Every structure is written in structure tokens, then in C-alpha cells.
């Protein structure tokens, strides 16, 4: 199976250059409607009962060619920053949902689902929260109000929430965030319960990176998920960010890992996929990257409760990687000129 796929991929790679010229304009919706356009990633994913999404960010939405692909190729969007705490509650008790709303409105216009990202995270917190000490009762009240105000605001508009983001260290111990240190590990169950009260229908996720493989960090999630389920805490899914890097190898236990969470009765999703490499990219690296995109797409399709895949923006033009990982980049399926890369054709192949 794998072998065949690999051979097919080589073929696809060889054809890609030719196909770019033929298919790229229609993928961008420049040919108008209904002229034998190839199906979009979203349409291909829907045939499997999955979504295929992209993150986006408000400043990018003035880029019309960018927007054309975002609007047409995907059926799910995640705001890259607009729903984070610093953006939504810049002053204590003063809420600003304008950035998130802009993306929700765009998604609605394009009939795309939205993943809410994220309610509780140690990063990108507002200054008023990080610049002082809190007693447990104070922080509990702050956290509850933040979660419930935001979840209520987006009730019926997002289908899922990353309620807690990046709660564990690599060795599976709890990350010592302000929430953990002040409130103890119970803050996670509390956050889930508060979110559920505010929107009983929305799917509630825990989300993290480096949990694609079976190992100490994903084991910590597995154990926590078992406990939360046993206690009747409203947890519905685990989000695997899947920020992969060629130099660290492919997470070969991904499919088994997804399956063990499914068996707990949880949904899973690949929520922030990108596959970075040291730049400059070359043909070999792009081919390996394409293979990985294909493999992770197949892994999700192989596990019934893996509900969808989101790439962390779709073009290298707007990837977060170069700014955060020195010397790395080229992580997404479209290049900086918005042209599809081998990875794009590999995803299509996996979805066919
Ligand atoms: C990133 C955004 O893409 C950047 O624009 C921002 O400067 C930093 O955060 N894990 C997450 C995402 O859960 O929220 C992060 O997004 C990437 C890593």
C-alpha cells in the first residue's frame, strides 16, 4: 500500500510541474464557476466525512489573491490569533471580539466551519494578567469569566474550542503555567465545565504539539482524558497540532495514537499542521515533505473519529515558522507566490 502510494507520489511529483499551469488558476477560482474545475481539498475531504481547513489571520485578509484560495479550497478556518486572550480581553473585564468576528463572518460567507482557538494558554496573555500576582479565588474568577464570556459570544458560531492549549511538558508533567501554579491541575476540568455551561453543544478539545507520536507527552493526555471521561467532565476531543519538522523524523505511531484516543470515545483532529525544513528548500526536501503530508492525511482518514485536518495557514507567505524557528521555513503546501507545492498534490492524492 505505502509502496504503491510512494510510486504514485513520484508520478504525481513528475506531473506536478505540468499540472500547476493547468490547475492552479482554477484552484484560485479565476476561471469562474463550473468549468470542470478539479474538486477542492474541502470537497475531497467531505467525501470521507472530514473537513480540510486552514488557519488565517486578520492582517492577511486584505490580500485578495490569498483570500480567493482561502475562500474556495477549505471548508474550515481557525483564527491564528484573533480569539486568543490578549486579543479578546485586552483590559480586565473589557472584551473585544472584533478580530475573531471578522474571521467568523468570512467563514460564514464561505460556509466554512470555525475552530475556536484558544481559551486557556500560557502564551499571548494580556499584560494585565501576567504583570501581577493572583490569589487562587481571584484567578479562578478571572478564568471563569474569560472562558464563559468568550464561549457565550461565539455560541453557535464555532463548532469546537481548544479549551486548554499546551498544558503538558515534553516529559508528561504539567506545564507550570500561572493557571497550574495558582489553581492546581484541576483548572483543566474546571475550564472544560465552564465552557460546557456556556455552550452545551460545542465540542471541547485539549490541544498540544509533539503529541502526534505515542510517548510521554501523548501518554499524559491519554491518562488525563481517561480520568476526565471517568469523572464525567465534558471533554470531546484531542487536538494534535502537528507542527512537524523534517529533521525530527515522521511520527510513525500517529495512526495508532489517533486510534487509542478514538477508543476512549474522543474525536481527534490535526489542528495546526505544518512541516518545516531548513531553508532553502530543494526538490528532495519538498518531496519528503509531500510524502509526510500524504502520510498524515492517510493516518487521519484511517481513523474514524479523526474529524479533520487544519494546516497552520496554507501558504509560506504567511507561515509563522520563519519568525519562530531560525533558518527554517517552507512548511506549507503553497509557496510564497501562492503556487501549490508537491505537498498540495500529495494531499489531494491521499484524499482521492
Ligand atoms: C502562532 C501564530 O501563528 C503567530 O502569528 C503568533 O505570533 C504566535 O502564535 N501553537 C499554537 C498557535 O497553538 O496558537 C501558535 O500560533 C503556533 C503554535
Automatic annotation (TrEMBL):
Check the record and name the PROSITE patterns matching this protein: GH10_2, TAT
Q: What class of enzyme is it?
A: hydrolase
Quote the EC number. 3.2.1.8
Point out the signal peptide segment.
Answer: 1-29
- Keyword Hydrolase among UniProt keywords: yes
Q: What does the UniProt keyword field contain?
A: Carbohydrate metabolism, Glycosidase, Hydrolase, Polysaccharide degradation, Signal, Xylan degradation
Which catalysed reactions does the entry list for this protein? Endohydrolysis of (1->4)-beta-D-xylosidic linkages in xylans
The record's listing under Pfam families reads: Glyco_hydro_10
**Top-level lineage group:** Bacteria
Where would I find the GH10 domain in this sequence? 55-350
| UniProt family annotation | Belongs to the glycosyl hydrolase 10 (cellulase F) family.
Name by which UniProt lists this protein: Beta-xylanase
Q: Which organism is it from?
A: Streptomyces cinnabarinus
